[in-house]
Sequence to fold (645 residues):
Amino acid sequence: MGLLENWINKGRLKSPWVVHFDCGSCNGCDIEVLACLTPVFDVERFGIINVGNPKHADVLLVTGTVNHRNKKVLKNIYDQMPDPKAVIAIGACGTSGGVFRECYNVVGGVDQVIPVDVYVPGCPAKPDAIIDGVVTALDVVKAKLGLGEMPKVTVID
Amino acid sequence: MPTHSEILNATPIAADAVVAQARSMFDQGYRLVTMSVVDLGDGNVDIFYHYDLNNEMTHFRLTHPKDKPVPSISPVYFAALLVENESRDHFNLQFDGLVLDFNRTLYLDEEITSTISAPFCKISTIQKKD
Amino acid sequence: MSRTIIPFGPQHPVLPEPLHLKLVVEDETIVEAIPALGYVHRGLETLASIRDYNQMVYIVERVCGICSCIHAMCYCQGLETMMNVEVPSRAKYLRVIWSELHRIHSHLLWLGLFADGFGFESLFMQFWKIRERVMDINEATAGNRVVISVNVVGGVRRDLDKTQQRWILDELDKLEKELRQLMKTMLDDYTVKKRTVGVGVLTAEQAIQLGAVGPTLRGSGVAQDARQLGYAAFDELDFEPVTSPEGDSWARSKVRFMETLQSMDIVRQAISRLPDTELAAKVPGKPTGEVVCRVEQPRGELLYYLKGNGSKNMERVRIRTPTFANIPPLLAMLPGAQLADVPIAALTIDPCISCTER
Fold:
């Protein structure tokens, strides 16, 4: 592995840029994602920056259920992101469809459309849990680069 | 005395009087709160028109066959545009004279409109298979 | 001059939510705005046929995460009217306290987003920093930060003890002090006023004709607030609707700022008068009949139409949310505006798309 590649990978893992997509969420998880960026939780101290452009991003945060109209938008955003990338499904709706899974316009969780690496449960997920999800996603990216082991599945009761 | 929650006491209204009624409410300065549609299950729907003047509400009830076009009040109240399009999506109702007709694409995409004709009607409110 | 259509959204920087407008522009001036919705539509009103009326409380809370408590309150009040249940007065006061705390956090959230909308990022951070005090109150008193689930049909599920009441009052005092420090920047600053004064003007007559509600209506000088109807304990508390006659973006931000201060005052009044009774009444039987119920959300008047048929499932739950009513006024205030002012004008109705589409 060359020196340059080493250097790029280091930057990738030290300062992940995230793009947030609201995919039919009730806003509960959205405002918690935004709360992560603001002074009390302040993820920018870890080098995590929220960007608007999927082509700049390493990690995709998806909140909410997937419905028939936004699944195309979600797929599109995922395809635009450069490799290696990680997807985090936030909240009960993102992981499985939550309370809305039986609604007629709901496809289900995010994993019905794109591969998901980390699930953050909660209705809505707390900012602490979201930050933990991003940190876990970094291990996934690391494993995808062949620099570490894939994190084990952890279930917290 | 205006109340925050009331047992609905709606004046019945005929289909051909809906627009004239809306026009007269508009001229008196009423605000259109919204319309509500309920499927009665016998081929008819109840359409409620909720108006408000200084926090006091007035309701009208139109009982109408599901397959016949309903006169649209959106030329009078522009705000009715969204709710009428929503009813088109949910109940597959037709509206006569709708100012901007999304043709059942306000909320729904083809995947739904081609499989479920009217998601909010009783006959098609079914649970998803898987 | 030739016309161009510029899509505004669904994925864009001013709002986390997928608000989509098709803007028809001539040069830089908006000629027409066409809404395109459906990115958040779930169809949760149909869940009433699968979930029973008690479970629906938790579904309607998730119409919108920001004003969840108020949705549940409206639904419960509608059912209480339908089933003729008298709610204990302590529950009424507790509902006022939690719903006003929700209004404070929603308005602070909006003020922050609005500041971000005109590019004042440090002001955004300030508002969101002081908002965390309210989130802490929610978490400490109800166990969750956003969706607090305190309402049940017949009353509330949680109580506030004396220590908690004192602590809430303390926190509100600190919050008010911090908020008043930001008042001058938000409402009097020269650069802020340059961006907001005269943008997105809506006259009082237009506002009523287009069905505007909440701060959008009151920002045009119409003193109408559903809290005047005296639901929960509002008939025993002192407050006047906040209005501002200008009808522009500045007026709407002023209304929301003043309402935040007013809500703190209402919480203080409610805590000082908290009566000592049961928390919830027994609810007999199954709902039958039709009820229309209204409450004031942070974004405006919220209407529920409920129809029960004597079974445990509701026949129809119809929700008219404030943003749904505020979109036609937005469409009317955009033509004539500059393209760069669209985010400001669109934000001033406080759009909540998950409410709108349900």
About this structure: Residues 89-117 of chain C form the longest helix (29 residues). The two ends of chain C are 39 Å apart (CA to CA). The beta strands of chain C are 3-8, 20-26, 29-36, 151-152, 155-156, 288-297, 300-309, 314-320. Chain C has one domain: 3-357.
